Amino acid sequence: MSKNGLSTETLAFLQGPRSLLINGEAVTGSGETVSIVDPSSGEVICDFPLASAADIDAAVTAARSALTRPSWSGMSGYERATCLYRLADLIEAHAETLAEIESLDFGMPIRMSRAMMASVPSKHLRYCAGWATRLDGTTKSSFPDTQTGGIHGFTFREPVGVVGAIIPWNSPMVMAIIKLAPALACGCTIVLKPSELTPLTAQYLGELAAAAGFPPGVINIVPGLGYEAGQALVDHPLLAKIAFTGSSNAARAIVGSVAEKLTPVALELGGKAPAIICADANLDAAARVAAGSCTSLQGQSCAAITRIYVERAVYPQFLERLTANLQALKIGPALDESSSLGPLVSASQYQRVQSYIAAGISAGATALSVSSTLPEGDGFYIAPVIFTDTKPSMSIVSDEIFGPVVVVEPFDSLDEAIALANDSPYGLFASAWTASIDKAHFLMRVLDVGYVAINGSGAFDASMPFGGVKQSGWGREFGEESVTHYTRIKTVAVTYDVS
Ligand code: NAP
Ligand code: MG
């Protein structure tokens, strides 16, 4: 598919006005705009309004008002769930348009966008909708039960209030849903700040949410600059919770900003995921999954496997298979049906990844060439790079690069492999490959991460808690853990006396 092959619905959306969503109204913001670039060609698609601090204030005020009048948290769980189910249905009905917009804006290959939009957002919304009617408290039974009086102790869950959600540019539609679905199910209202690099699916999502019947002010969508719109959101006094996904550096700035007013913060941050591949592993499967993971979203994925430690006996065989798998990937424009790898999101991300590759080479690491043909033109394409002969101190080993760059090193003992895998400030995700049930159970216990995949790529399902340890974050998303993010427990003690 070329850009000319976009569906009528996508073209109609692109030709329409760009806007923020505040209090149920499409607004054009304070006047400043940013150019939205198609990373497959480097061409400007459109200009998008940037939310100002005043826009953020209007959005938070609207979210607060939608929370306190009986429009959202005053609705029954069934009514909230109905809105979430309707939004899921609408997203499925418009999945092709969402896929096309996401591919155009972020550069996700269209086959992947289609598969993702057809299932991930709607599943997540429906899973969370189930929670809306299950936000139960507990009855406490530790008091003496007399005939004439005593204390009746119990708890209930209530929404935390207005949530300020800040999300990055990688897979922006899914990032938005991951924040919206549980917060709304719990009865919170939300101000969502997408990255200014990739705001298009968020605008479309806002239009679908209005059609799904969410009352005005419940969902506000305000793309803008991190240091301006993001900062204004973090600083807003009416915010009850900040839910942030992004880099550890931005997280540090946010945590510093809330030190005074102590707004609770949930953090989903970066990763440098290791894989341990033992000699008894299924090498074909391990190489296929590793190649898919390190190039997933062009390597712009927090859970991408980027450090692979292989038992020395099978190191050459694994390297050969990994290279073959990477070589088989076709790099091309995101809207081209035959592309399995698209461009990086932006010129600056392209420069950043190139400078890491150059730093690795000048530090003495060996870059194995994965021969690939790059498309002509000004798109931000980078062919996968495998580094060997590295040292743990090299930036290609220690830093989250967020590009298709992977380090592959041999190990001689399991203890050595574990030490290498855990030698990172990050602890989001890891994978381990072995046919030994003993080694598998040992590795899942000792890997210092929030999520371990054994002999596979893992399942990123709404029911499976996801989040990191160390500098990869605070808290978990997905599953019941999301409910603890967006609700708080109130304890009640009723004294009664009928003596
Ligand atoms: P980023 O620079 O940290 O930005 C993330 C979001 O925060 C953007 O909307 C950004 O706005 C905003 N922001 C930046 N500084 C801010 C501040 N001081 N106050 C408030 N908001 C601020 O990250 P990115 O480059 O967009 O995304 C890549 C990062 O996200 C990687 O580190 C990746 O690992 C992480 N990530 C983590 C997960 C996870 O689930 N653990 C998932 C996906 C991505 P601007 O766009 O204007 O900068
Ligand atoms: Mg950024």
Record the SSE blueprint:
Blueprint: H1 8-15, E1 20-22, E2 25-27, E3 33-38, E4 43-49, H2 53-68, H3 77-93, H4 95-106, H5 110-132, E5 139-140, E6 149-159, E7 162-166, H6 172-185, E8 189-193, H7 200-212, E9 219-221, H8 226-235, E10 241-245, H9 248-257, E11 265-268, E12 273-277, H10 283-294, E13 305-311, H11 315-327, H12 347-362, E14 366-369, E15 385-388, H13 395-398, E16 405-411, H14 414-422, E17 426-427, E18 429-433, H15 437-446, E19 451-454, E20 469-470, E21 473-474, H16 479-486, E22 487-497
Parallel strand pairs: 7-8, 7-10, 8-9, 10-11, 12-13, 12-18, 13-16, 15-16, 18-19
Antiparallel strand pairs: 1-2, 3-4, 5-6, 6-22, 11-21, 14-15, 17-20
Helix pairs in contact: 2-8, 3-5, 3-7, 4-5, 4-7, 5-6, 10-11
Question: Can I get a quick summary?
Answer:
The protein has 499 residues and is an alpha/beta fold.
Notes on the protein architecture:
39% of the residues lie in helices and 21% in strands. Helix 2 (53-68) packs parallel to helix 8 (226-235), helix 3 packs antiparallel against helix 5 (110-132) and helix 3 (77-93) packs across helix 7 (200-212). Strand 10 (241-245), helix 9 (248-257) and strand 11 (265-268) form a beta-alpha-beta unit. The protein has a 7-stranded mixed β-sheet with strand order 14-15-16-13-12-18-19, sandwiched between helices. With 499 residues, it is of the alpha/beta class. The mean pLDDT is 96. The longest helix has 23 residues, at 110-132. The chain has 16 helices and 22 strands. The chain starts with 7 loop residues before the first helix and ends with a strand. Residues 195, 226 line the site of magnesium ion (MG).
